[in-house]
């Protein structure tokens, strides 16, 4: 079973700070990488996808991918209390559409 | 546009009872999935269907069966529920490797 590892957290940051979430994966054949946000009691919601090495920015979110190091990260700038949630890293299994999920990192943004 | 619809949202079963979780998507996606989510264990794949008429086992298939009734619908059946199947169940669908999944709202199942 291919593995995806995330810092278990919880991660606590003050409002306005940068939150940094990290993820490593074991399958070198993985091609697609995703970050999902899951509020308590809700379903996961896709917030970022990245396929190529480097950075991808979308508003306050930046995803970073380093395939050589098998490492994916998510930066949240100007963190808001509404960003408080569990963030799931997901990686496709080989070349398939199936995703393997990390166990998630719980983020709390303190006002 | 409803996306992925799961029913029921909540269910309590007695050990040994059976039930079917329903999932339907209206996005014309080929692939559909059933995951379970448990505290400390993350999302684990139970079964998936890459296209209408095909199903395959995931990481934790024991105690479950699935049916891909048509392109829209993918059901998950528990034939004889056990307390270990107490979990939150998510259905998801996807189209291609670049787009990730769209999840349903989940079914919270308790087996007593």
Termini separation of chain B comes to 36 Å
Distance between the termini of chain A: 40 Å
Can you summarize the main beta sheet of chain B? 7 strands, mixed
Largest contact between protein chains?
Answer: A-B, 25 and 25 residues
Gross geometry of chain B: globular
Tell me what portion of residues of chain B adopts beta-strand conformation. over 45%
Question: Mind describing the biggest β-sheet of chain A?
Answer: 6 strands, mixed
Order of helices and strands of chain A: EEEEEEEEEEE
Radius of gyration of chain A: 13 Å
Average pLDDT rating of chain A = 94
DSSP strand tally of chain B = 11
Mean pLDDT of chain B: 95
Low-confidence runs of chain B: none
User: Fraction of residues of chain B in helices?
Assistant: under 10%
Topology, number of strands of chain A? 11
Stretches of chain A where pLDDT is under 50 for at least 5 consecutive residues are none
Tags for this entry?
heterodimer; A: 111 residues; mainly beta; six-stranded mixed beta sheet; five-stranded antiparallel beta sheet; globular; B: 112 residues; seven-stranded mixed beta sheet; four-stranded antiparallel beta sheet; 11 strands; 0% helix
Textual characterization of the structure:
The complex is a heterodimer of chains A (111) and B (112). Chain A has no helices and eleven strands. Chain A is mainly beta. Chain A has strands spanning 4-6, 11-14, 19-25, 33-38, 45-50, 54-58, 61-66, 71-76, 85-92, 99-101, 105-110. Chain B has 112 residues and is an all-beta fold. Chain B is 0% helix and 52% strand. The radius of gyration of chain B is 13 Å and the shape is globular. The mean pLDDT of chain B is 95. The chains are: A mainly beta (111), B mainly beta (112).
């Amino acid at each position: 079973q291919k593995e995806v590892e995330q810092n278990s957290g919880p991660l606590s940051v003050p409002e306005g700070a940068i939150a940094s979430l990290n993820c490593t994966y074991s399958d070198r054949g993985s091609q697609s990488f995703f970050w999902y946000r899951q509020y308590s009691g809700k379903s996961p919601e896709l917030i970022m996808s990245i396929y190529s090495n480097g950075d991808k920015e979308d508003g306050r979110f930046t995803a970073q991918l380093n395939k050589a190091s098998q490492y994916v990260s998510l930066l949240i700038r100007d963190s808001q209390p509404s960003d408080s949630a569990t963030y799931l890293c997901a990686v496709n299994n080989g070349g398939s559409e199936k995703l393997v999920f990390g166990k998630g990192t719980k983020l709390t943004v303190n006002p | 546009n409803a996306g992925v619809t799961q029913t029921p949202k909540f269910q309590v079963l007695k050990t040994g009872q059976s039930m079917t979780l329903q999932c339907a998507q209206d996005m014309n996606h080929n692939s559909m999935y059933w995951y379970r989510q448990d505290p400390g264990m993350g999302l684990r794949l139970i079964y998936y269907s890459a296209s209408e008429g095909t199903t395959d086992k995931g990481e934790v298939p024991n105690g479950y069966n699935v049916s891909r009734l048509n392109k829209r619908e993918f059901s998950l059946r528990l034939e004889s529920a056990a307390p270990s199947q107490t979990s939150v169940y998510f259905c998801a669908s996807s189209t291609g490797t670049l787009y990730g999944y769209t999840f349903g709202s989940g079914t919270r199942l308790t087996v007593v």
